[in-house]
Every structure is written in C-alpha cells, then in structure tokens.
Amino acid sequence: MISPTHLEGRNTVSKNVSRTGNDDFDAMVLRYLTVNHPEGNLQSILEKLKALATNSPLTLDALSKAMNVANEKMRKDPTHAEYANTVLSKKAMQLAGTNILYTTMIYEIFFPTDEENTAIEKF
C-alpha cells in the first residue's frame, strides 16, 4: 500500500508536501533582483541569492528556477525589462546550463552506460 505522502510518479509531488518554501524563495529572489539589479558575475549574484535563505540549503535547481521566475516577471515590467533582457537573462541561461551539466554528470555517475563516449568522458 502506498502512503499518502508517497511520491506519485515522476515530476509529481504528493498533495501533503508543502511547496510554499520554494514560492517564498522565488518571491525573495524577485524582490532582491528588482530592488538591486546586481550586475556582477554569476557567482557573486548566486552568493547574494543564497544569503537570502541562510536557514535552508539551496539546490542548483531551486536557484535556477528562482532566477527564471524573476527573469520572466521582470521582462513583463517596463521598469525592469531592460535589466532583465541585458543582464538577468544571460545569468539565468548560464545557471540553467550549469544545472543541466551538473544533473547530467550526477546521472552518469549513478546510472553509467556501456557506451564509450558517455557525458563524463567527453569532459
């Protein structure tokens, strides 16, 4: 028998699992980016975003999602559209690429294939 808190399949979350934590973090990131418009490199921006949630560990996935949510909302706002188009979208794409690379490498470590040219060997 499957308990009510059991995950119900790939990319689905049980009804008993709260998601407000991620939504709160997304809102904090949006608020920080709209107020400050940071223009440093990706690492410096990520350090500032991680400081927003000092009591909870953040994954690359959570950071990437939050930056993409902020990017989408800021592009629609005329007062922040230029920043979103010139700075934030580039940083969000860099972070998404890093997240994809990391996820691919972890997947290859835990589920290796017999192919000669796996993703890890290419790097």
Task: Summarize this structure as a short list of keywords or feature phrases.
5 helices; 0% strand; globular; mainly alpha; 123 residues
List the helices and strands and how they pair.
Blueprint: H1 20-36, H2 42-50, H3 60-76, H4 81-110, H5 119-122
Helix pairs in contact: 1-3, 3-4
Overall number of domains: 1
State the end-to-end distance. Answer: 43 Å
Beta strand count: 0
Radius of gyration: 17 Å
Q: Helical content, roughly?
A: 55-70%
Catalogue the unreliable spans.
1-20
**What is the typical, i.e. mean, pLDDT?**
80
Largest sheet: none
The general outline is: globular
Order of helices and strands: HHHHH
What's the short version?
By secondary structure, the chain is an all-alpha fold.
How would you describe this structure to a colleague?
This protein has 123 residues and is mainly alpha-helical. It has one domain. 63% of the residues lie in helices and 0% in strands. It has helices spanning 20-36, 42-50, 60-76, 81-110, 119-122. Helix 1 crosses helix 3 (60-76) and helix 3 runs antiparallel to helix 4. Mean pLDDT is 80; it is low at 1-20.
